[in-house]
Amino acid sequence: MQIESLIICPETKARAGEFKTDHGKIQTPVFMPVGTAGSVKSLSPQDLTDTGSQIILGNTYHLLLRPGMDIMQSAGGLHKFMSWKGPILTDSGGYQVFSLGKMNKITEAGVVFQSHLDGSRHSLTPEISMDIQRSLGSDIVMAFDECTSYPATREAAQISMDLTHRWELRSLKYFRETKPLYGHRQQLFGIVQGSVYPELRKVSAQTLTDMDFDGYAIGGLSVGEPKEDMYAMTDVVTDILPQDQPRYLMGVGKPEDLVKAVALGVDMFDCVLPTRNARHGIMFTWDGPISVKAAREKNVHEPLDANCNCYTCQNFSRAYLRHLFKANELLVFRLASLHNIHFYHELMAAMRTAIQAGNFPSFRTDFFNRYNLKRAGGTV
Amino acid sequence: MQIESLIICPETKARAGEFKTDHGKIQTPVFMPVGTAGSVKSLSPQDLTDTGSQIILGNTYHLLLRPGMDIMQSAGGLHKFMSWKGPILTDSGGYQVFSLGKMNKITEAGVVFQSHLDGSRHSLTPEISMDIQRSLGSDIVMAFDECTSYPATREAAQISMDLTHRWELRSLKYFRETKPLYGHRQQLFGIVQGSVYPELRKVSAQTLTDMDFDGYAIGGLSVGEPKEDMYAMTDVVTDILPQDQPRYLMGVGKPEDLVKAVALGVDMFDCVLPTRNARHGIMFTWDGPISVKAAREKNVHEPLDANCNCYTCQNFSRAYLRHLFKANELLVFRLASLHNIHFYHELMAAMRTAIQAGNFPSFRTDFFNRYNLKRAGGTV
Q1: Are B41 and A333 within 8 A, CB to CB?
Q2: CA-to-CA distance for B72 and B135, rounded, in angstroms?
Q3: Mutating which of A42, A43, A74, A331 best tests the B interface, going by the most B Cβ atoms within 10 A?
Q4: What is the spatial distance between Cα A180 and Cα A175, in angstroms, rounded to a whole number?
Q5: Is A38 in contact with B327 (Cβ distance < 8 A)?
Q6: Which residue in A302, A324, A330 has the most chain B C-beta atoms within 10 A of its own C-beta, making it the best mutation to test that interface?
Q7: Which of A251, A282, A283, B152 qualifies as a cystine partner to A222, CB 3.0-4.6 A?
Q8: Which 3 state secondary structure label does DSSP give A270?
Q9: B44 to A83: CB separation less than 8 angstroms, yes or no
Q10: Does B319 contact A45 at a Cβ distance shorter than 8 Å?
């Protein structure tokens, strides 16, 4: 998967480009809203298009358990099931097996786990993960890895990383032996592990690059490690990954993380933060996050951001949004999510424009001068 | 308030017409979605427009308690607060004081009650109800009445009705002495009471007609009485109310109720049923209500109604809707509500077309031949 029209910031490692899938072109850097169970929480496909979403994420673990792959296949895949016409990336299921499922056994073959929903027993192996992602029909498939938990000793991190490399090679081999089910092309990304150890991260990045995936993800970060480790590992890895293929930092992050990671050469991000925070009334603005449920907003008949052109800011005041939260009205979860997802996409688009215009460093300075990380009172 | 372009079915009392408000023209018969607390549950103003909503309802009791009239006035009224540009009808608050609030005292002056939210004490009198509805800025204001509870003896019903008539006269007098706050015209509807006693209903309809309101509501029905009483009372009342003004049957009802009441000469309806049922997966179709949560829908990759042009039916299968319900995904409450509200509006539009075309009786026959009241298994 080639990154085309690539422009690299001369002062940082920030990149702007684009790449193609059979469901459309993606302009980078890009944020991918998370559609866990076949729906980006509270938002319709039309809402996603309206907010500027180019590609969304689906979670293999959740969709495997519910609705299950028999229904998914008879629906004709996830695109048709959820009526999303753009590109979809699916994860391998591994991360959520470890974080949500009840793990029964990890062996060289893969994992056996019990569903957090009904206790039913399932296996996930590199081959099964590829089969599931074939059933989902995602445009971008993730190799099956073990997300090394944090903290991990260097020895444990290396053992985990080596297992991941063997699983990823099996993923790649099996993926190449199988075919898409629905007529459109699927591409496979490898995932770099190595915990917070630069030498392991270098080995992992080089090992995966040598395997020749269609793109590369940086996994095992944003799992509790200090922020400086997250950035240091990202920096090490992007120095090694091929320039002409997309790099995806999994599970990141806050707006300030996106700006910092773009500067380190990352092209793709996903995170539940904008939608989850929205459901709790934490709204993102260029001045920082604000809590629209706060008492000070109750008589503020102004939008969240007077310059924002999302549906929410074009039509509703902070006072109204606060009222809806207080009255527990369903509408507000959508209105809040619309704004936050729109903000994330605007932020990515602004970075892309700055990179293309050659002024990303000053954009970044301006962003951090204005953006007050603590504005919502430490609740973000 | 004149009903214009009035066409009356020769075989029944069904009517098609239109009337004007400062926020737009309303074509009758019309169904009004209920926006209890300043939001039709899960739907945005754009959704309401897209489904064909011409006018919506707001609840005085709910909006008085939250956000309160200080915030409502500083917002510039309910239209601006909730960003709805079409007409709004508000109730008088009386019904919900009796059904939700903790009643402390009913006197000739009015009622004193405690909020169901925080126990705070409030009064509602005809004059206060008018003031609140001036603050809300609704296009159609309802006179303050006592909704006679069911069952009531004839004597109790008469005492209640007489009190209602005195309160309605005070409502009318005070309404005429006060002015709209936001520059657009407001009009006042009287409410006919009289429980299930035809003689009382006749007296009430005549008394209110003599007072000369802008339109007339039929209240105190759909409160537990047998359906045949509801229709009989409606029939008695519409014989007396002026032909050239709108008639509104409050709180009704199911699709079959709407068809029957239109045949009895009713122009306007409101009910929480389409949105409440939607949130429980009960979906209305021309073949009757269905439960989309039922196991039989899990592999049905067809819309609720292949001929429906709502956003939900144009994009999503029953299997997907069922999955969203099972996964408790917020999106489904909106998708289900969109369909049900759209169905209600389509039903009203179909009746209007049939009345105008002179074939309402055959429309009604066809409707009841096709519509299976029990299809959802008695859950509707």
Answers
A1: no
A2: 7
A3: A331
A4: 9
A5: yes
A6: A330
A7: A251
A8: strand
A9: no
A10: no
Query: d(Cα B258, Cα A256) in Å, to the nearest integer?
Result: 55
Smallest CA–CA distance, residue B56 to chain A, in Å, is 16
How far apart are alpha carbons B232 and B196 in whole angstroms? 8
- The catalytic residues of B are 91, 270
Average pLDDT, chain B: 96
CB contact under 8 A, A323 and B66: yes
Pick from A170, A172, A165: nearest CA to A194:
A165
Q: Which of A44, A298, A317 sits opposite B331 (nearest CB)?
A: A44
Q: What is the pLDDT of residues A233-268, one digit of tens each?
A: 999 999 999 999 999 999 999 999 999 999 999 999
pTM > 0.95: yes or no: yes
* Substitution target from B334, B335, B337, B341 for chain A, most A beta carbons within 10 A: B334
Q: Domains (ranges, CATH) in chain A?
A: 4-271 (3.20.20.105), 278-370 (no CATH)
> Across chain A, how many H-helices and E-strands are there?
15, 17
B156 inside 8 A of chain A by CB: no
Give the three-class secondary structure for B222: coil
Task: Please say whether the beta carbons of A349 and A262 come within 8 A.
Answer: no
pLDDT for the residue B147 = 92
- Give, as one character, the DSSP assignment of residue A29: S
List CB contacts (< 8 A) between B329 and chain A: 37-39, 41
CA dihedral B111, B186, A324, B120 (to 10 degrees): -20
Give the whole-angstrom CA distance, residue A337 versus residue A273.
10
- In this structure, what token pair is assigned to residue B320? 């997907």
Catalytic residue of the set A47, A91, A214, A257: A91
Half-sphere exposure for B253 (CA within 13 Å, toward CB)? 20
B223-261: per-residue pLDDT in tens?
Answer: 999 999 999 999 999 999 999 999 999 999 999 999 999
Provide the percentage of residues in chain A whose pLDDT is more than 70. Answer: 99
Q: What phi and psi, each to the nearest 5 degrees, are found at residue B269?
A: -140, 155
Fill in the amino acid letter for A380: V
CA end-to-end distance (rounded Å), chain A: 35
- Shortest distance between the Cα of A301 and any Cα of chain B, in A, equals 6
- Name the E strands within B205-312: 215-218, 247-249, 268-270, 282-285, 288-291
Least confident of A99-103, A212-216, B368-372: A99-103
Do A221 and A252 meet the contact criterion of CB atoms below 8 Å apart?
yes
